[in-house]
Design brief:
170 residues; Four Helix Bundle (Hemerythrin (Met), subunit A)
């Protein structure tokens, strides 16, 4: 997906996520990712939800909640950028969010429902963005980011973390 974006649209840190986006359109990528997430989470045993592959690492449920939390934050960023809000948006510390998420107390179904509601909201949001809105650039975490970069990051971020779960947890 990086070929669709200019280097000015995102911090190079996000290139890994953007490269993993699954489709040429943001809405298609988000829709594909929605079903992929649901199918994947349904395939995980209940016992594995609270499993961490090493001490001080997140559990599977915490990784899934991290995906959801990040989606909410990046969708909000996309909305602000699309509306041409020039305020600099603060970053967020994922390592503070996770222990305060209560993720290990959620069932598979609750995590799926939370993700599905969040993803449906993101899809609806990105469907309504015009081409001009998608190319608006704002600032988050001290770096420029376009509305469309935020969308591709959402898609790739999900894939990145599901791949990690497959490699290290299951």
């Amino acid at each position: 997906m990086q070929s669709l974006l200019t280097p000015e649209e995102y911090n190079p840190y996000y290139g890994t996520y953007i490269d993993k986006a699954e489709s040429t359109t943001i809405v298609d990528a988000l829709q594909l990712g929605k079903q992929s997430f649901i199918n994947f989470v349904n395939s995980i045993s209940n016992e594995k939800l609270t499993y961490a592959y090493a001490e001080e690492k997140w559990t599977v449920a915490e990784v899934l909640q991290h995906i959801i939390d990040t989606e909410r934050i990046f969708s909000y960023r996309a909305l602000r950028f699309a509306r041409n809000d020039k305020s600099s948006l603060m970053g967020f510390d994922q390592d503070e969010y996770v222990p305060n998420s209560n993720a290990n107390n959620y069932s598979k179904q609750e995590l799926i429902e939370d993700f599905e509601a969040t993803r449906n909201s993101s899809i609806a949001l990105f469907k309504r963005f015009t081409e001009d809105m998608l190319t608006q650039i704002g600032e988050a975490s001290g770096s420029p980011m376009s509305t469309r970069a935020a969308g591709y990051i959402l898609s790739g971020h999900q894939k990145h973390h599901l791949d990690i779960i497959k490699e290290r947890y299951l």
